[in-house]
Amino acid sequence: MLKPLRQGLPPLDPAAVSDAASCALPARYEAVREARRFTRATLDQWDVGDRFDDICLVVSELVTNALRHGLPLSHHPSGEALRAASSEPADVACSERAPSVRLHLMRWTERLVCAVRDPSHETPVPRDSDDFSAESGRGLFLVDSFTDSWGWHPLAGSLDGKVVWALFRLRTAE
Fold first, then answer.
1. C-alpha to C-alpha distance for 36 and 150, rounded to whole angstroms
2. CA separation (Å) from 79 to 68, 76, 85, 121, 160?
3. % of the chain with per-residue pLDDT over 90
4. Quick one: which of 37, 103, 108, 109 has the fewest CB in 10 Å?
5. Neighbouring residues of 170: CB distance < 8 A, sequence distance ≥ 6
6. How far apart, in whole angstroms, are the C-alpha atoms of residue 153 and residue 163?
7. Cα dihedral angle (129, 135, 139, 141), rounded to 10 degrees?
């Protein structure tokens, strides 16, 4: 099955970034909906062509994984919050006390990178399951299927945790 990539992003010149956007997300499952809204609003301003839906799907999966697996148990979203995420408007004010997840979107002329930072040092590991009726466990399989590449790396310095990233190649108008 899939093996997580441990190397960093492919070489991309930071000075050549056309656009960048970032948002902090609270340790609540409503944050997945907020990440989708933020991504859609951002991508509406950028020319990402036919990759729009792929990028939105992958952002949802990466943020969901960060909330489920990247937060300390004391800050995990409750089942109540999970149920509310699908039916009520999200209040996305970030809590200063709880570690948050952060979403970064960066666009170059021919590439876009989604990166999700969380406070965990745990390796993202795809589940090996043949149960295609299961309601969870396929997030990284979807990330691998809809991106051109993905991986993760631990953070260094004053930042704690890791970043899981996904790269999309964009078609340019010729």
1. 19
2. 11, 9, 10, 24, 26
3. 45
4. 109
5. 47, 48, 49, 51, 107, 109, 110, 111, 112
6. 6
7. 40
| CA 13 vs CA 18, 34, 55, 106, 141: distances in Å | 11, 29, 21, 11, 28
Q: pLDDT value at position 67?
A: 92
**Helix axis angle, 30-45 relative to 52-69, nearest 10°?**
150
Q: Which residue has the tokens 């909330």?
A: 67
Amino acid residing at 33:
R
The residue ranges of DSSP E strands in the chain, in sequence order, are 19-25, 101-107, 111-118, 149-154, 162-169
Give the amino acid at 62. Answer: L
**What's the CA gap between 155 and 112, in Å, rounded?**
20
pLDDT band at 127 (very low <50, low <70, confident <90, very high): low
The residue behind tokens 């631990």 is 154
Cβ-based neighbours of 149, under 8 Å, separated by 6 or more? 5, 10, 166, 167
Q: What is the mean pLDDT of residues 134-148?
A: 80
